[in-house]
Automatic annotation (TrEMBL):
Ranges of residues in domain LRRNT: 32-64
Protein name as annotated: LRC52 protein
InterPro entries: KCNMA1_auxiliary (IPR051432), Leu-rich_rpt (IPR001611), LRR_dom_sf (IPR032675), LRRNT (IPR000372)
GO CC terms in record: voltage-gated potassium channel complex
Signal peptide: 1-29
Organism: Odontophorus gujanensis
Segments passing through the bilayer: 255-283
Gene3D superfamilies cross-referenced by the UniProt entry: Ribonuclease Inhibitor
Membrane topology annotation: Single-pass membrane protein
Main location: membrane
SMART domains on file: LRRNT
Cellular localisation: Cell membrane
Recorded name of the encoding gene: Lrrc52
Length: 300
Protein backbone atom coordinates (compact mmCIF):
# COMPACT_ATOMS: atom_id res chain seq x y z
CA UNK A 1 0.00 0.00 0.00
CA UNK A 2 2.75 2.49 0.86
CA UNK A 3 4.40 1.69 -2.47
CA UNK A 4 1.12 2.27 -4.32
CA UNK A 5 0.61 5.57 -2.51
CA UNK A 6 4.20 6.55 -3.34
CA UNK A 7 3.60 5.69 -7.00
CA UNK A 8 0.37 7.65 -7.10
CA UNK A 9 2.00 10.64 -5.41
CA UNK A 10 4.91 10.43 -7.87
CA UNK A 11 2.54 10.34 -10.84
CA UNK A 12 0.57 13.21 -9.36
CA UNK A 13 3.79 15.14 -8.85
CA UNK A 14 4.73 14.47 -12.46
CA UNK A 15 1.36 15.41 -13.94
CA UNK A 16 1.01 18.66 -12.00
CA UNK A 17 3.92 20.47 -13.72
CA UNK A 18 2.94 18.93 -17.07
CA UNK A 19 -0.61 20.17 -16.65
CA UNK A 20 0.69 23.56 -15.63
CA UNK A 21 2.90 23.74 -18.71
CA UNK A 22 -0.03 22.70 -20.92
CA UNK A 23 -2.33 25.30 -19.41
CA UNK A 24 0.30 28.00 -19.68
CA UNK A 25 0.84 27.04 -23.31
CA UNK A 26 -2.88 27.28 -24.01
CA UNK A 27 -3.05 30.64 -22.26
CA UNK A 28 -0.04 31.90 -24.19
CA UNK A 29 -1.67 30.77 -27.42
CA UNK A 30 -4.84 32.68 -26.59
CA UNK A 31 -2.91 35.85 -25.61
CA UNK A 32 -0.58 35.58 -28.61
CA UNK A 33 -3.29 35.98 -31.24
CA UNK A 34 -5.07 39.34 -31.58
CA UNK A 35 -8.83 39.28 -31.23
CA UNK A 36 -10.60 38.59 -34.52
CA UNK A 37 -7.39 37.55 -36.29
CA UNK A 38 -6.32 34.11 -37.40
CA UNK A 39 -2.90 32.86 -36.42
CA UNK A 40 -0.78 30.11 -37.90
CA UNK A 41 2.86 29.14 -37.65
CA UNK A 42 4.78 32.45 -37.59
CA UNK A 43 1.81 34.14 -39.32
CA UNK A 44 -0.92 36.55 -38.19
CA UNK A 45 -3.77 37.45 -40.55
CA UNK A 46 -6.13 40.29 -39.60
CA UNK A 47 -7.63 40.95 -43.03
CA UNK A 48 -10.94 42.83 -43.07
CA UNK A 49 -11.46 43.05 -39.30
CA UNK A 50 -12.30 46.78 -39.30
CA UNK A 51 -9.34 47.45 -37.03
CA UNK A 52 -8.93 51.11 -36.04
CA UNK A 53 -5.49 50.66 -34.51
CA UNK A 54 -2.46 48.45 -34.84
CA UNK A 55 -3.36 45.16 -33.07
CA UNK A 56 -1.77 44.19 -29.79
CA UNK A 57 -0.71 40.77 -28.49
CA UNK A 58 1.03 39.76 -31.72
CA UNK A 59 3.48 36.89 -31.11
CA UNK A 60 7.01 38.24 -31.06
CA UNK A 61 8.27 35.56 -33.45
CA UNK A 62 5.78 36.51 -36.19
CA UNK A 63 7.32 36.51 -39.66
CA UNK A 64 4.24 37.38 -41.72
CA UNK A 65 1.70 40.01 -40.67
CA UNK A 66 -1.34 40.83 -42.84
CA UNK A 67 -3.40 43.89 -41.90
CA UNK A 68 -5.12 44.39 -45.26
CA UNK A 69 -8.56 46.01 -45.63
CA UNK A 70 -8.82 47.72 -42.23
CA UNK A 71 -9.00 51.31 -40.97
CA UNK A 72 -5.54 51.62 -39.44
CA UNK A 73 -4.25 55.18 -39.79
CA UNK A 74 -0.98 54.87 -37.86
CA UNK A 75 1.80 52.31 -37.52
CA UNK A 76 3.51 52.61 -34.10
CA UNK A 77 7.27 52.29 -34.49
CA UNK A 78 7.74 50.93 -30.96
CA UNK A 79 5.21 48.10 -31.30
CA UNK A 80 6.60 47.22 -34.73
CA UNK A 81 10.12 47.07 -33.35
CA UNK A 82 9.07 44.19 -31.07
CA UNK A 83 8.54 42.12 -34.24
CA UNK A 84 12.24 41.94 -35.03
CA UNK A 85 11.86 38.80 -37.18
CA UNK A 86 9.13 40.23 -39.42
CA UNK A 87 9.85 39.73 -43.13
CA UNK A 88 6.38 40.22 -44.70
CA UNK A 89 4.03 43.12 -43.92
CA UNK A 90 0.81 43.74 -45.86
CA UNK A 91 -0.97 46.99 -44.95
CA UNK A 92 -2.86 47.61 -48.18
CA UNK A 93 -6.30 49.23 -48.12
CA UNK A 94 -5.94 51.14 -44.87
CA UNK A 95 -5.85 54.83 -43.93
CA UNK A 96 -2.13 55.28 -43.48
CA UNK A 97 -1.23 58.88 -44.17
CA UNK A 98 1.33 61.60 -44.01
CA UNK A 99 4.35 60.74 -41.91
CA UNK A 100 5.94 57.29 -42.05
CA UNK A 101 9.49 58.51 -41.44
CA UNK A 102 11.41 56.16 -39.11
CA UNK A 103 8.32 53.96 -38.69
CA UNK A 104 10.18 50.80 -39.79
CA UNK A 105 13.38 51.38 -37.85
CA UNK A 106 12.93 48.16 -35.81
CA UNK A 107 12.01 45.73 -38.61
CA UNK A 108 15.26 45.68 -40.58
CA UNK A 109 14.64 42.13 -41.87
CA UNK A 110 11.56 43.18 -43.81
CA UNK A 111 11.61 41.84 -47.38
CA UNK A 112 8.03 42.49 -48.55
CA UNK A 113 6.06 45.67 -47.78
CA UNK A 114 2.67 46.56 -49.26
CA UNK A 115 1.33 50.07 -48.53
CA UNK A 116 -0.91 50.35 -51.58
CA UNK A 117 -4.42 51.85 -51.39
CA UNK A 118 -3.61 54.26 -48.55
CA UNK A 119 -3.25 58.03 -48.15
CA UNK A 120 0.51 58.48 -48.45
CA UNK A 121 1.55 61.95 -49.60
CA UNK A 122 5.33 61.73 -49.85
CA UNK A 123 8.28 59.37 -49.60
CA UNK A 124 11.49 60.76 -48.15
CA UNK A 125 14.90 59.27 -47.48
CA UNK A 126 13.83 58.53 -43.88
CA UNK A 127 10.71 56.57 -44.88
CA UNK A 128 12.36 53.30 -45.98
CA UNK A 129 16.07 53.92 -45.31
CA UNK A 130 16.00 51.49 -42.35
CA UNK A 131 15.03 48.56 -44.62
CA UNK A 132 18.23 47.41 -46.36
CA UNK A 133 16.78 43.94 -47.14
CA UNK A 134 13.62 45.17 -48.87
CA UNK A 135 12.94 43.33 -52.15
CA UNK A 136 9.28 44.18 -52.90
CA UNK A 137 7.75 47.58 -52.21
CA UNK A 138 4.20 48.44 -53.30
CA UNK A 139 3.01 52.01 -52.81
CA UNK A 140 0.58 52.14 -55.74
CA UNK A 141 -2.96 53.54 -55.59
CA UNK A 142 -2.06 56.36 -53.24
CA UNK A 143 -3.75 59.22 -55.11
CA UNK A 144 -2.25 61.89 -52.83
CA UNK A 145 1.33 60.69 -53.28
CA UNK A 146 2.90 63.58 -55.18
CA UNK A 147 6.55 63.56 -54.07
CA UNK A 148 9.21 60.86 -54.01
CA UNK A 149 12.57 62.35 -53.10
CA UNK A 150 15.41 61.38 -55.41
CA UNK A 151 17.33 59.62 -52.62
CA UNK A 152 14.21 57.92 -51.20
CA UNK A 153 15.49 54.40 -52.05
CA UNK A 154 19.21 55.02 -51.62
CA UNK A 155 19.46 52.34 -48.89
CA UNK A 156 17.12 49.85 -50.61
CA UNK A 157 19.62 48.51 -53.11
CA UNK A 158 18.07 44.99 -53.07
CA UNK A 159 14.76 46.21 -54.48
CA UNK A 160 13.55 44.08 -57.38
CA UNK A 161 9.89 45.12 -57.56
CA UNK A 162 8.76 48.72 -57.03
CA UNK A 163 5.20 49.79 -57.80
CA UNK A 164 4.19 53.48 -57.88
CA UNK A 165 1.25 53.08 -60.28
CA UNK A 166 -1.93 55.18 -60.02
CA UNK A 167 -0.57 57.86 -57.71
CA UNK A 168 -0.45 61.64 -57.91
CA UNK A 169 3.10 61.63 -59.28
CA UNK A 170 3.88 63.87 -62.23
CA UNK A 171 7.67 63.70 -61.93
CA UNK A 172 10.30 61.17 -60.86
CA UNK A 173 14.03 61.85 -60.84
CA UNK A 174 16.04 59.37 -62.90
CA UNK A 175 18.56 58.86 -60.08
CA UNK A 176 15.76 57.58 -57.83
CA UNK A 177 15.58 54.28 -59.72
CA UNK A 178 18.63 54.04 -61.97
CA UNK A 179 20.88 53.39 -58.96
CA UNK A 180 18.92 50.24 -57.97
CA UNK A 181 21.08 47.47 -59.51
CA UNK A 182 18.60 44.59 -59.00
CA UNK A 183 15.41 46.39 -60.06
CA UNK A 184 13.44 44.25 -62.53
CA UNK A 185 9.82 45.41 -62.19
CA UNK A 186 8.74 49.04 -61.99
CA UNK A 187 5.05 49.96 -61.97
CA UNK A 188 4.41 53.39 -63.48
CA UNK A 189 1.02 53.02 -65.14
CA UNK A 190 -1.79 55.60 -64.99
CA UNK A 191 0.28 58.43 -63.56
CA UNK A 192 -0.13 61.96 -64.91
CA UNK A 193 3.44 62.41 -66.15
CA UNK A 194 4.48 65.96 -67.00
CA UNK A 195 6.90 65.57 -69.89
CA UNK A 196 9.11 68.65 -69.77
CA UNK A 197 12.87 69.18 -70.01
CA UNK A 198 13.38 68.18 -66.36
CA UNK A 199 11.71 64.83 -67.08
CA UNK A 200 13.90 64.08 -70.12
CA UNK A 201 16.56 62.19 -68.15
CA UNK A 202 13.94 59.86 -66.70
CA UNK A 203 12.35 59.25 -70.11
CA UNK A 204 15.78 58.46 -71.54
CA UNK A 205 16.44 55.97 -68.75
CA UNK A 206 13.04 54.34 -69.26
CA UNK A 207 13.53 53.82 -72.99
CA UNK A 208 17.05 52.45 -72.61
CA UNK A 209 16.57 50.33 -69.48
CA UNK A 210 15.94 46.57 -69.38
CA UNK A 211 13.44 47.00 -66.53
CA UNK A 212 9.94 45.61 -67.18
CA UNK A 213 6.92 47.81 -66.53
CA UNK A 214 3.91 45.80 -65.25
CA UNK A 215 0.61 46.86 -66.74
CA UNK A 216 2.35 48.61 -69.61
CA UNK A 217 4.87 45.98 -70.66
CA UNK A 218 7.48 48.37 -71.97
CA UNK A 219 8.25 52.07 -71.75
CA UNK A 220 6.88 52.41 -75.30
CA UNK A 221 3.36 52.04 -73.87
CA UNK A 222 3.68 54.72 -71.17
CA UNK A 223 2.36 58.11 -72.22
CA UNK A 224 2.65 61.77 -71.23
CA UNK A 225 -0.30 63.59 -69.72
CA UNK A 226 0.98 67.17 -69.92
CA UNK A 227 1.80 69.55 -71.53
CA UNK A 228 -1.08 69.58 -73.99
CA UNK A 229 1.28 69.41 -76.98
CA UNK A 230 2.58 66.04 -75.75
CA UNK A 231 -0.66 64.67 -74.32
CA UNK A 232 -1.05 60.90 -74.89
CA UNK A 233 2.31 60.82 -76.67
CA UNK A 234 4.32 57.65 -76.04
CA UNK A 235 7.64 58.03 -74.27
CA UNK A 236 9.96 57.30 -77.24
CA UNK A 237 8.24 59.99 -79.33
CA UNK A 238 8.23 62.39 -76.37
CA UNK A 239 11.96 61.76 -75.94
CA UNK A 240 12.63 62.84 -79.54
CA UNK A 241 10.56 66.00 -79.24
CA UNK A 242 12.07 66.96 -75.89
CA UNK A 243 15.60 66.42 -77.22
CA UNK A 244 14.81 68.81 -80.05
CA UNK A 245 13.13 71.47 -77.92
CA UNK A 246 15.28 71.26 -74.78
CA UNK A 247 18.77 70.92 -76.22
CA UNK A 248 18.97 72.50 -79.69
CA UNK A 249 15.99 74.79 -80.31
CA UNK A 250 15.42 78.38 -79.20
CA UNK A 251 11.96 79.86 -79.15
CA UNK A 252 11.11 83.19 -80.83
CA UNK A 253 11.06 84.95 -77.49
CA UNK A 254 14.60 83.69 -76.82
CA UNK A 255 15.87 85.33 -80.02
CA UNK A 256 14.06 88.56 -79.14
CA UNK A 257 15.63 88.50 -75.69
CA UNK A 258 19.12 87.94 -77.11
CA UNK A 259 18.68 90.78 -79.62
CA UNK A 260 17.46 93.07 -76.85
CA UNK A 261 20.44 92.23 -74.65
CA UNK A 262 22.82 92.81 -77.58
CA UNK A 263 21.27 96.19 -78.32
CA UNK A 264 21.49 97.21 -74.66
CA UNK A 265 25.16 96.26 -74.52
CA UNK A 266 25.87 98.17 -77.76
CA UNK A 267 23.94 101.23 -76.58
CA UNK A 268 25.61 101.21 -73.18
CA UNK A 269 29.05 100.92 -74.80
CA UNK A 270 28.29 103.80 -77.18
CA UNK A 271 27.10 106.07 -74.37
CA UNK A 272 30.13 105.27 -72.23
CA UNK A 273 32.48 105.98 -75.16
CA UNK A 274 30.66 109.27 -75.91
CA UNK A 275 30.88 110.39 -72.28
CA UNK A 276 34.54 109.43 -72.13
CA UNK A 277 35.21 111.45 -75.30
CA UNK A 278 33.43 114.52 -73.92
CA UNK A 279 35.38 114.28 -70.68
CA UNK A 280 38.63 114.03 -72.63
CA UNK A 281 37.80 117.11 -74.75
CA UNK A 282 36.80 119.17 -71.72
CA UNK A 283 40.00 118.16 -69.95
CA UNK A 284 42.04 119.09 -73.02
CA UNK A 285 40.37 122.49 -73.35
CA UNK A 286 40.88 123.20 -69.65
CA UNK A 287 44.54 122.20 -69.85
CA UNK A 288 45.10 124.41 -72.92
CA UNK A 289 43.60 127.46 -71.18
CA UNK A 290 45.84 126.96 -68.16
CA UNK A 291 48.92 126.76 -70.38
CA UNK A 292 47.94 129.95 -72.24
CA UNK A 293 47.41 131.83 -68.98
CA UNK A 294 50.81 130.71 -67.68
CA UNK A 295 52.50 131.88 -70.93
CA UNK A 296 50.82 135.31 -70.71
CA UNK A 297 51.96 135.70 -67.10
CA UNK A 298 55.54 134.80 -68.07
CA UNK A 299 55.48 137.30 -70.95
CA UNK A 300 54.37 140.15 -68.63
Amino acid sequence: APREQLGMSTCAGTWRPLSLVFLLGMAAGDVGCPSGCSCGYLEVNCTGQQLQEFPTAIPLDTRQLILAANNVSYLPAVELSFLADLVYLDCQKNLLGDDLDFTFVGVVKLVYLDLSFNNLTQVTFSTFSQLPSLVVLKISDNPNLVVIEKDAFANNTWLRHLDVSRTGLTFLDASTVQDLPYLRLLGLSDNLWHCNCSFLDFITWMTESSVHFPGEGYADNITCHTPEALHALRMPAAKVQLHASCQTHLHKRDYIFLCFIGFCIFFAGTVVAWLAGICAVIYQIHSSKEEEEEEEEDAV
